[in-house]
Specification:
The protein has 317 residues and is mostly beta strands. It is 0% helix and 52% strand. It starts with a strand and ends with a strand.
Length: 317
């Protein structure tokens, strides 16, 4: 049975006057899927990784219909993004490969990591401006796939275990965040070398990273419940604490209006931060233990996967 819950809610404003109402909708997916990451698809549908069921999920928001595509034996997908070819590209940790799903042919193709990098614990991917896919693995790995040739290369991370979120800036730079390594790093997209940048203080646990339209990098600090901005040109950090959170800032995404979206596990909420006013707004889940992991959006919509409730959530404004 398909369940869609739509609620018009007054945003819980943190540090500002009450914000206008926003539409928050929930879409149930296959029970037991534990959706991890989510990506709005080019055709208006939404892709998600059904990590516990080894599948790519496809939601049609217009009808609430959900289908799942098996990614293969022992699959355990983590991240999903939309490629320049309009296909779904997935970090498939269970098979230690990057997977590509073609929505037209329904074909799943695997790009296996080199044998020197078994059990990479693949995490997240991004495309650079030349169409090369870059990926992270928490076991201390990062690498790239050339979709044109199928060549896969990988490197050992400079500080070992921890590479997690990864993103591309408007000018084509590729950066990743290392949760266990407690740093961010810029990848030389030619040589593959990684230049480590230390956080403003030790122990913050950078988990995810995203760029705004100006090339400023936004980073979620998991251990300290903060969001930070790094200016690569001036090599300067600025940090803001999420209201009432001393840890648990998981995901970060910057929308087309340069508003910064985060997930706050302590308050069980999606949070929006305005860098101009330096104010936060919170969109708490209507169920306990939502555990929203990655978030991505398209104009007017912010999507997340509630891994703890087997639902997708969207905030529309």
């Amino acid at each position: 049975m398909i369940h869609i819950v739509v609620a018009t809610v007054a945003v819980v404003a943190l540090g500002i006057d009450r914000a206008p109402a926003a539409d928050v909708s929930y879409y149930e997916v296959t029970r037991g899927a534990h959706p991890h990451d989510v990506a709005p698809a080019p055709d208006g549908k939404v892709w998600y990784t059904a990590q516990a069921q080894g599948a790519l999920g496809i939601l049609d928001p217009k009808t609430g219909k959900v289908t799942q595509v098996s990614l293969g034996r022992n699959a355990a997908p983590h991240g999903v993004i939309v490629g320049p070819d309009r296909a779904a590209w997935i970090t498939e940790g269970g098979q230690n490969a990057i997977a590509r799903f073609d929505p037209a042919s329904k074909e799943v193709k695997l790009f296996a990591l080199p044998k020197e990098f078994p059990d990479a614990n693949l995490n997240t991917a991004t495309f650079d401006r030349k169409g090369i896919l870059w990926f992270t693995g928490q076991s201390g790995v990062y690498g790239r796939v050339d979709p044109a040739t199928g060549k896969v290369e990988a490197w050992k991370a400079p500080k070992g275990y921890g590479p997690y979120g990864i993103a591309t800036t408007p000018n084509g730079e590729v950066w990743y965040a290392s949760l266990a390594g407690d740093h961010i790093a810029k990848i030389d997209t030619v040589s593959g070398d990684a230049l480590v940048v230390a956080p403003p203080k030790p122990g913050v646990g950078p988990r995810r990273i995203w760029s705004d339209s100006k090339g400023l990098l936004w980073v979620s600090f998991w251990n300290t419940g903060e969001v930070a901005r790094f200016d690569p040109m001036n090599k300067a950090w600025k940090v803001w604490s999420l209201p009432k959170a001393k840890s648990g800032c998981y995901a970060v995404y910057v929308d087309d209006k340069d508003k910064v979206w985060l997930t706050d596990w302590n308050s069980n909420a999606i949070v929006r931060f305005d860098p101009v006013t330096e104010k936060f707004e919170s969109f708490p889940s209507n169920r306990r233990g939502a555990s929203v992991r990655q978030i991505l959006g398209r104009p007017g919509e912010l999507w997340g996967a509630e891994s703890g409730t087997d639902r997708l959530v969207v905030v529309r404004d």
